[in-house]
Write a structure and sequence with these properties.
This protein is mainly alpha-helical and 381 residues long. The protein is 71% helix and 0% strand. The chain has 15 helices and no strands. The longest helix has 35 residues. It is globular.
Amino acid sequence: MSFALRRNKSANDMTISDTPDTESKIRIRTIETVDVTVMIGSAISAFALSQLLYETILPLSGALGFLLTCYVFFISISWLAVREIRGTVRAKDHLARLVVWTGASLAIIPLVLVVLYVIGKGYHSLRPQFFSQDQRYVGALSDSTEGGGAHAIIGTLQQVGIASLIAVPLGITTAIYMNEVKGRLAKPLRTVVDAMSAVPSIVAGLFIYAAWILALGNRQTGLAGSLALSVLFLPTVTRTAEVVLRLVPGGLREASLALGGTEWRTTSRVVLPTSRSGLVTAVILGVARVIGETAPLILTVGGAFIMNWNPLSGKQDSLPFFVYRLIRFPQEAQIARAWTGALVLLILVLVLFVAARAIGGRGPENISRLKKRRLKRKGLA
């Protein structure tokens, strides 16, 4: 009997060891050949079923309904195919991946269409002189390639730069006070910042126009436009910076305090360097919030057709105001210049964002090449 038990045990062990391991880890960021094949086949099948449903079975019409029907058929067929081939778990993962891709596409496609439309309308009049000339010698009969928008580009850079110098230190300091110091005024400040986030841009322009120009007797200048932009800039930077500072692990603060560091030294040497990339992102969001604003600049900068290098004296132009003013002209050449100004504004925003990301880095765990060279010279890398 003991021999029979040993034989049965060995047979069971052999059966268990010979059973293939059908479970495998799901790699989120990888797309296998089977997934691509299934999606292509599902797309073809979904299109054929939708065509059959619309053209033969039911009297339906409309491009939007056809696309929605195709999408429903596509995800259904794709899910069924993956479930039959690779199991239920893989099918759920595949379905979630398709839904996420769909949401990302719906968010990106309108942005891509807007960019392509602006490029298509504005590249015809884009010439090198657009970056070096103003509208001083441009007349009603001038060609769209004559003159340029250098005065508007300089005005935008100066106004956004001054607004950044005003709003970024105030916003980051306020975020540090609300998140690190947590004084008595933290809650009232947070309420004020939330309220400022909902202020329309025209209200910010009216406030600066009433308080700075009418009450104090100042004129329309680039500085007045910068003050209006800083009102819109400040809440965006403050709220984003506060969220970024909250993401810093509390263990880093505790370790610094345990080593004898003061609260200010912990914030300046540990918290801020750790959240550098996020703070740069906060500044980028603030720039994106104000660089395309037109309403507050109509009331504060006044607009100009010639170059004005001094934002403290005289009216000044900006790219949003440049586009707003020229798009209302009846001449086709002026409308073409307005589209070119919109294209240059897009290019300027892209350049600023790339430069900001390069300065801010990719995160605390990634060391830039310049810093690696410095550490190597000191013998620390």
